[in-house]
Amino acid sequence: MNSRNSCAAIAAMLLLLLVSNTPCTAQLSSAFYDNTCPNALSTIRTAIRTAVSRERRMAASLIRLHFHDCFVQGCDASILLDDAPSIESEKNARPNNNSVRGYEVIDAAKSEVEKICPQVVSCADIVAVAARDASVAVGGPSWTVKLGRRDSTTASRSIAESDLPRFRDSLEILISKFSDKGLNAREMVALSGAHTIGQAQCLTFRDRLYNNGSDIDAGFASTRRRRCPSSGQDGNLAPLDLVTPNSFDNNYFKNLVQRKGLLESDQVLFSGGSTDGIVSEYSRSPSTFNSDFASAMVKMGDIETLTGQDGLIRRICSALN
């Protein structure tokens, strides 16, 4: 071998070593299942449409389920795991217990997908797709869901207790909690707009109704007191948006401008603080809200995902294989 060929061979070997030692980061892709399970998305969509047609409120619950999953360990379906010797379930954390719903809908969708593509589609991806399909089912925006997440082998009740937003959080705390997940204040306000659908329990808004110092429209408070007495009946439900509680629109933001936000964590978005302008903009422009909401949901779906060889594909979403 002459010196020129020898140098070329050495260079090629060095390049091969360099490439082989460079970590390969798997990327999410909307086409992830095109070859391995081409009917996955249509199968999930059918399951979600069925569930929402049976109970309109389920749309809000499925969007919230995705949110509560992504804020704890990332979008890894950890919220679906039941208690086990090695798992302290997030379902029992204070923000989730007797509050988060829709587990059985995800289980049903997973069961249908498993029939056509056993152990191919992750529970984490089903949760993400379900949120999009739920939005569409009640007139909300659609977006392209990036796929390829894998399921976690762990859960964290402690992170659920600390990182999930609470109904009494101040604006500063909300901004901080979302910032910790890589989401800015505008994205936080947009995602809060999911409260244009769904319901809340009396115990989460009672203080706002009966606190004379609270920033609340008097007529609105009077109406809500009928279903939420000053004590007892904690589980009584009230729609987060009294105007169009079953339709995804921008009335949530119109309500905030009129001091008719149901939760403290809703009204703080329009209470003389830094996000007032965003709320005003969304109250005037439903198209801007829809666009920003869709973009924020895509970004949220990217939080700390497991891909490649990390995690696993659970056969049953509530338990490890």
Give short descriptive properties of this protein.
321 residues, Peroxidase, domain 1, Peroxidase, domain 2, 14 helices, 2 strands, 47% helix
Distance between the termini: 55 Å
Output the CATH topology of the largest domain: Peroxidase, domain 2
Instruction: Please estimate the helix content.
Output: 40-55%
Our count of domains comes out at 2
The neighbouring-strand order within the major sheet is 1-2
The global form is: globular
Mean pLDDT over the full residue set:
92
Helix tally?
Answer: 14
CATH architecture of the largest domain: Orthogonal Bundle
Q: Count of DSSP E strands?
A: 2
Task: Indicate the CATH class of the largest domain.
Answer: Mainly Alpha
Class based on secondary structure composition and strand pairing: mainly alpha
Low-confidence stretches: 7-25
The CATH H-level homologous superfamily of the largest domain: Peroxidase, domain 2
Explained architecture:
It comes from Nyssa sinensis. It holds the Pfam family peroxidase. Ca(2+) 1 binds at residues 69, 72, 74, 76, 78, 90. It is found in: Secreted. Removal of H(2)O(2), oxidation of toxic reductants, biosynthesis and degradation of lignin, suberization, auxin catabolism, response to environmental stresses such as wounding, pathogen attack and oxidative stress. The protein is an all-alpha fold. It has 2 domains: 39-164, Peroxidase, domain 1; 171-297, Peroxidase, domain 2, CATH 1.10.420. Helices cover 47% and strands 2% of the residues. The chain has a two-stranded antiparallel ribbon with strand order 1-2. It is globular, with a radius of gyration of 22 Å.
